[in-house]
Design brief:
It is a single chain. The protein is elongated, with a radius of gyration of 22 Å. 23% of the residues lie in helices and 28% in strands. With 351 residues, the chain is α+β, with helices and mostly antiparallel strands. The chain starts with 11 loop residues before the first strand and ends in a 6-residue tail after the last strand. The strands form two sheets. Strands 1-2-3-6-7-10-9-4-5-8 form a ten-stranded mixed beta sheet, sandwiched between helices. A five-stranded mixed beta sheet has the order 13-12-15-11-14. A hairpin with a 6-residue loop joins strand 9 and strand 10 (265-270). 43% of the residues are buried. It is built from ten helices and 15 strands.
C-alpha cells in the first residue's frame, strides 16, 4: 500500500546522523524486526558508524569503504527512521553473493534434456555503492517516512556523485519463518557454518574471510534444495516487499544475485538512471509564507550543500527556476533566499 503524505510531513526531515542521536538511534534499532541484522544496536557500534559518517561527509575525493554515510529521519524532534550508504563494496573485504546461473544439458541419442539452476559464489558487486539499513519505526510506518527515508539517499548521492562509482545496489531481506528461523539458511549455510544465523551475520560485518574458507567452492544445484527454498530464491521478506517495489519503481532491477545467508534478492541500477536522480533539478530558493500547497504535488527537496544536507517533502514544485518555501520550510532545510535547492518529483507508489 502506498504511504500517505500530508501537510504535517514538512517537519519530517532526513539529515546525517550526529553523536547526539545515539540514544534515539539505539531505541529505534532495538525495535528492528527479525532479519534486520545490519542495524547496529550497541552504543559503541552506533557511535562508530556515526563517527565514520561525519568523517565521510567532511572528506573529499573518491569515497572509500571507510566513508560510510549514515542518516536519520526526524519528526518533531524524535528519530523515526535510519538509513545508510556504504561506498566502494569489496574494497576493504570481499562482498559475496550467490549468482543464480542456469545449466542445460542434453543426450541427443536418447532424446533427453536436463536443465537446472545453480548457485555460484561470486563478487559481482565489487566497487558498487550499497544503500542499506533502511529502518522506520512502527509508529511512523504509513506516514511517508519510509519513502522519504529511502529516496532522500539518492539526492545525497546526486550531490556527491563525483565521489561515487555510479553503480548502486541494495540487498533486500530474505524470507524468515514466524518463529524467526530462515529457510535458506537452514538449507545451505547452516551446513557449513557451525554457528547461528545471527552470529554469522554479525561476524560477516567485519570478517568475510571465514565465508570463503567455509562455503563450498563449487556450484550448488538447486534441485538438492527443499521445494520451499528452491521456489522462493530471491523472494523478499514480507516486511521488505514494499521497499523492493519502491526501488523497482526507481529503476532498480533484480540482478539474479541473492544474499548468501537469507537468500534475499539483490537489486541494482546505474546512479544516473535512478528516477529520483534523473528527474532532479536545481532551483533558486525564494521565501513566501503564503505559498500554497498544490493538490497532488509532492516533491522531494534537499539542501544540496554536502555539509548541511537535509531533505524533506514539499507540496509544491519549482516554477521558472525558483522554488517557493515558507519560512518554516526554509528553516527546516537550512536554506536562505537565493541559495540553491535540489528537488525531484515524487511518484506515488501503487500497490
Amino acid at each position: 500500500m502506498a504511504e500517505a503524505f500530508g501537510p504535517q510531513d514538512i517537519m519530517m526531515i532526513v539529515r546525517p546522523a550526529a553523536p547526539t542521536d545515539l540514544q534515539g538511534l539505539k531505541t529505534l534499532a532495538l525495535s528492528a524486526d527479525t532479519g534486520m541484522t545490519t542495524v547496529p544496536t550497541e552504543d559503541t557500534k552506533i557511535m562508530a558508524r556515526i563517527e565514520r559518517s561525519v568523517a565521510g561527509i567532511e572528506a573529499t575525493g573518491r569515497a572509500t569503504a571507510e566513508d560510510t554515510f549514515f542518516f536519520v529521519t526526524e519528526k518533531d524532534g524524535v528519530i523515526v527512521g535510519m538509513s545508510t550508504i556504504f561506498p566502494s563494496l569489496g574494497e576493504d573485504r570481499p562482498f559475496y553473493s550467490y549468482r543464480i546461473g542456469h545449466i542445460a544439458k542434453s543426450a541427443p541419442e536418447l532424446g533427453l534434456e536436463a536443465q537446472s539452476d545453480v548457485l555460484i559464489l561470486c563478487n559481482d558487486f565489487h566497487g558498487y555503492d550499497e544503500i542499506a539499513t533502511l529502518l522506520v519505526s512502527k509508529g511512523a510506518r504509513g506516514s511517508g517516512a519510509g519513502r522519504l527515508t529511502s529516496l532522500s539517499r539518492f539526492l545525497f548521492m546526486k550531490t556527491i556523485e563525483e565521489r561515487l562509482s555510479g553503480k548502486v545496489m541494495a540487498e533486500i531481506r530474505g524470507r524468515f519463518r514466524d518463529d524467526g528461523t530462515c529457510p535458506f539458511w537452514d538449507a545451505i549455510a547452516s551446513k557449513f557454518f557451525k554457528m547461528s544465523f545471527d552470529e554469522a551475520d554479525r561476524r560477516s560485518a567485519h570478517d568475510f574471510r571465514f565465508i570463503a574458507d567455509l562455503m563450498p567452492k563449487y556450484p550448488i544445484y538447486t534441485e538438492f534444495l527443499p521445494d520451499d527454498v528452491r521456489n522462493n530464491l530471491g523472494t523478499p521478506h514480507h516486511l521488505s516487499a514494499t521497499a523492493m517495489k519502491m526501488l523497482e519503481s526507481e529503476g532498480f532491477e533484480f540482478s539474479r544475485c541473492i544474499d548468501i545467508f537469507d537468500g534475499g534478492p539483490s537489486v541494482e541500477a546505474p546512479l544516473s538512471r535512478i528516477r529520483t536522480v534523473a528527474s532532479s533539478e536545481t532551483a533558486e530558493t525564494t521565501i513566501d509564507d503564503n505559498a500554497p500547497a498544490e493538490a497532488g504535488e509532492r516533491w522531494l527537496a534537499a539542501n544540496p550543500a554536502v555539509g548541511r544536507f537535509c531533505a524533506t517533502v514539499l507540496h509544491r514544485g519549482p516554477h521558472e527556476g525558483q522554488q517557493k518555501l515558507t519560512s518554516d520550510e526554509a528553516k527546516a532545510l537550512g536554506l536562505e533566499p537565493g541559495e540553491p535547492i535540489l528537488v525531484s518529483p515524487m511518484r506515488t507508489q501503487k500497490g
